[in-house]
DNA sequence: TTTAGGG
DNA sequence: CCCTAAA
């Protein structure tokens, strides 16, 4: 499989160009705004609204499918323009590729006040960057201005020009002030400095901190930056969804997944409460080849399939699951993946099965956010603040700065031409976008699927919570399940997939089943032992209400059927050594121990020692069904480790030093005891001999 | 099933 | 958290 080197591009996502469509009539300015009372507004309405805005984009994109998108690749030294024949008039935007990363982006601030954006040229635009500009923008500037509404013609022209200038010259980009009425701003970032890779996208005061500290060839951002700003309000009046993908130092896997912890600003914007796990993903990856997922909820799965298909049609170009270790940012990948497949860590699916219930399923570890979510979402009674807010203005003001787009992986021969690369990428993008899109709503890190739920019910009505609101672009269900014919399979198989074709269907909907069930039942009744109290705290973070689970379980059990079938099928094709049931494959949701739990654990271990995990479990976690003795043992292990490392190296919810000290003490003590026991035994046996 | 450890 | 060898 190494006939020739391949460049592995990871498209975790794209910045999808988007220009808010000004509402045709005098209704507004491309604002997502619902006239009706927000409290009455259903999530579905919201979706519709957003989707409507996106439609434009989707159309243009699909129209362009098959054609080569022109692109300007700014390599470190040169600018290449080629094949531009697809005027996407409405799409006037600019796409960039940063460090071999591709993201089509366009930031449009559609707020009334914006005139001071791009002036941070110095550190942003300091070097040649890899920029990909689609025809929509660079080559067809002339027509670009036609986008959307005639009214903007002029303004946009200006902007486009500017853009062009920028793209080619990579010069300073001061600002681009757009027309009076819509006051759009098209902001471009050419971030080039290898070390300072960030897309300087600042809409108004917002700097976009995309940290692109990744190696080349990595297109990392999968967020579509766009603003559907909605109102006359000055920017400051409503939360800015900043795409703080702060994947920097933290172990995404552990705690944050970028979105999970993207700066306090908007934890949930990129939802995906880290549920993903690369391992699981790995499994799934292989599954994708075999199973044709019908899951319409997990867009990326399908996308994967589809994309691969696309590539397989091309001689040398094809996509494949890149090997994990080849990628420096697997974590991120996971993370993004999450939003689609796992996204909610089991929280997404079925969350909303009960319309009236709190959809607040919290993938633990999201604790902070979750508490907020609890407050805002679902059944909980809104705080006074929010209430008053609503009374003043019952409309929900949203500013959508970006959409999440399913990630793509592309593998392409090293000697492939840039042009083919472009085409490849284009195809991939087109495959997704062209197929029609669906909008997903993510709130507080969780997918909101119940379309009938009102924003109020979902907790989306409070200003303060809006920063936790995100939208995702998902392949439409119809397109999502591409006809993966038999040939498709055969074509796919040889590619690799050394892993046993697995046991589960990619559809996380299904996969989540077992896990969720566990989750739901995790906290049956609390009789109120002292320790139970601790754990009860966890109950809070336990995602969803029991009754919701009932309904959901029923649905899931149905969903499981096909899985088994597919599973069998897969096995038939590639016999596995150890066929496993689907349920066993699902990795459990990660549920970080709370301090309370740690306390309980420490206390129990102090008493019982380190070799009696079952007892510890029964003693301290009897009511926490999701904590197995193995979990406790593992937690102890990590606690010991944590206690030994410097505080700076610790991650996650900080454990009080006092507890850590106790951990060390207890650990030392019991280790000693253990050693003594062994000595005893040894001496005894020796004596016997 | 539990433990103990590596992954 | 997962996976497993051992007990």
TrEMBL record:
Q: Spell out the GO cellular component terms annotated for this protein, sorted alphabetically and separated by semicolons.
A: nucleus
Q: Basic and acidic residues: which segments have biased composition?
A: 75-85
- Alphabetic keyword roster: DNA-binding, Nucleus
Q: Where is this region: Disordered?
A: 59-85, 533-552
Extract one GO BP annotation from the record.
Answer: green leaf volatile biosynthetic process
Q: HTH myb-type domain location, by residue?
A: 586-644
SMART domains listed in its UniProt record: SANT (SM00717)
Q: Which terms in the Gene Ontology molecular function aspect does this entry carry?
A: telomeric DNA binding; transcription cis-regulatory region binding
- Where in the cell is the protein located? Nucleus
**Span of domain Ubiquitin-like:** 396-466
Q: Where is it predominantly found?
A: nucleus
- Which Pfam families has this protein been placed in? Ubiquitin_TPR1
Q: List compositional bias (Polar residues) regions by residue number.
A: 59-68
What range(s) does the Myb-like domain occupy?
585-640
Domain of life, per lineage: Eukaryota
Q: Which PROSITE patterns match?
A: HTH_MYB, MYB_LIKE, UBIQUITIN_2
> Which PANTHER family does the entry link to?
TELOMERE REPEAT-BINDING PROTEIN 2-RELATED, TELOMERIC REPEAT BINDING PROTEIN
Name of the protein described by the UniProt record = Telomere repeat-binding protein 5
């Amino acid at each position: 499989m190494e006939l020739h080197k391949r460049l592995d591009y990871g498209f975790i996502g794209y910045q999808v160009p988007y220009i808010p469509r000004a509402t045709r009539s005098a209704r507004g300015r491309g604002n997502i705004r619902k006239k009706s009372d927000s409290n009455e507004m259903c999530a579905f309405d919201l979706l519709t609204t957003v989707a409507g805005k996106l439609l434009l984009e989707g159309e243009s994109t699909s129209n362009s499918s098959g054609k080569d998108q022109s692109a300007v690749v700014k390599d470190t030294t040169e600018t290449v323009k080629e094949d531009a024949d697809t005027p996407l008039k409405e799409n006037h935007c600019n796409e960039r590729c940063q460090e071999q990363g591709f993201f089509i982006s366009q930031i449009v601030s559609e707020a009334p006040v914006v005139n001071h954006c791009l002036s941070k040229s110095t550190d942003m635009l300091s070097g040649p960057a890899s920029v990909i500009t689609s025809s929509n923008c660079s080559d067809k500037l002339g027509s670009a201005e036609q986008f959307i509404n005639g009214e903007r013609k002029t303004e946009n022209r200006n902007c486009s020009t500017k853009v062009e200038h920028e793209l080619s010259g990579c010069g300073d980009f001061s600002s681009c002030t757009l027309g009076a009425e819509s006051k759009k701003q098209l902001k471009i970032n050419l971030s080039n400095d290898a070390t300072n890779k960030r897309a300087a996208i600042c809409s108004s005061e917002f700097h976009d901190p995309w940290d692109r500290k990744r190696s080349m060839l990595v297109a990392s951002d999968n967020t579509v930056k766009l603003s559907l700003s909605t109102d006359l309000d000055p920017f400051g009046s409503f939360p800015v969804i900043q795409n703080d993908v702060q994947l920097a130092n933290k172990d995404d896997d552990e705690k944050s997944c970028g979105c999970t912890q993207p700066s306090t600003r908007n934890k949930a914007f990129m939802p995906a409460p880290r549920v993903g796990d690369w391992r699981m993903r790995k499994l799934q990856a292989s599954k994708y080849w075999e199973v044709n997922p019908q899951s319409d909820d997990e867009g990326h799965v399908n996308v994967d399939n589809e994309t691969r298909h696309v590539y397989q049609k091309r001689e040398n170009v094809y996509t494949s699951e890149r090997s994990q270790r080849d990628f420096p940012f697997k974590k991120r990948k996971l993370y993004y993946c999450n939003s689609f497949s796992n996204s909610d860590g089991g929280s997404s699916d079925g969350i909303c099965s009960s319309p009236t219930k709190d959809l607040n399923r919290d993938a633990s570890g999201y604790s902070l956010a979750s508490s907020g979510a609890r407050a805002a979402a679902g059944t909980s009674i809104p705080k006074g603040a929010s209430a008053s807010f609503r009374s003043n203005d019952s409309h929900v003001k949203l500013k959508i700065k970006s959409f999440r787009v399913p990630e793509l992986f592309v593998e392409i021969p090293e000697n492939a031409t840039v042009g083919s690369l472009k085409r490849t990428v284009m195809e991939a993008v087109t495959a997704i976008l062209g197929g029609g899109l669906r909008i997903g709503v993510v709130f507080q890190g969780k997918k909101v699927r119940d379309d009938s739920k009102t924003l109020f019910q979902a907790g989306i009505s409070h200003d303060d919570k809006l920063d936790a609101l995100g939208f995702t672009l998902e392949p439409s269900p119809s397109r999502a399940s591409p006809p993966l014919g038999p040939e498709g399979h055969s074509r796919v198989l040889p590619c690799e997939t050394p892993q046993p074709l697995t046991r589960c269907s990619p559809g996380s909907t299904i996969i989540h089943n077992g896990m969720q069930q566990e989750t739901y039942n995790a906290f049956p009744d609390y009789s109120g032992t002292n320790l139970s109290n601790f754990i009860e705290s966890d109950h809070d973070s336990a995602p969803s209400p029991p009754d919701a689970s009932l309904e959901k379980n029923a649905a899931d059990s149905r969903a499981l059927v096909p899985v088994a079938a597919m599973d069998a099928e897969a096995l038939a094709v590639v016999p596995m050594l150890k066929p496993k049931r689907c349920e066993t494959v699902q990795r459990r949701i990660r549920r970080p121990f709370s301090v309370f739990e740690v306390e309980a654990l420490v206390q129990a271990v102090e008493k019982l020692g380190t070799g009696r995990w079952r007892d510890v479990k029964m003693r301290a976690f009897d009511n926490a069904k999701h904590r197995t003795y193995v979990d406790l043992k593992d937690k102890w292990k990590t606690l010991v480790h944590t206690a030994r490392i410097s505080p700076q190296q610790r991650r996650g919810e900080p454990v009080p030093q006092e507890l850590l000290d106790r951990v060390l003490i207890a650990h030392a003590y019991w280790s000693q005891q253990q050693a003594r026991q062994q000595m005893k035994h040894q001496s005894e046996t020796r004596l016997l001999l």
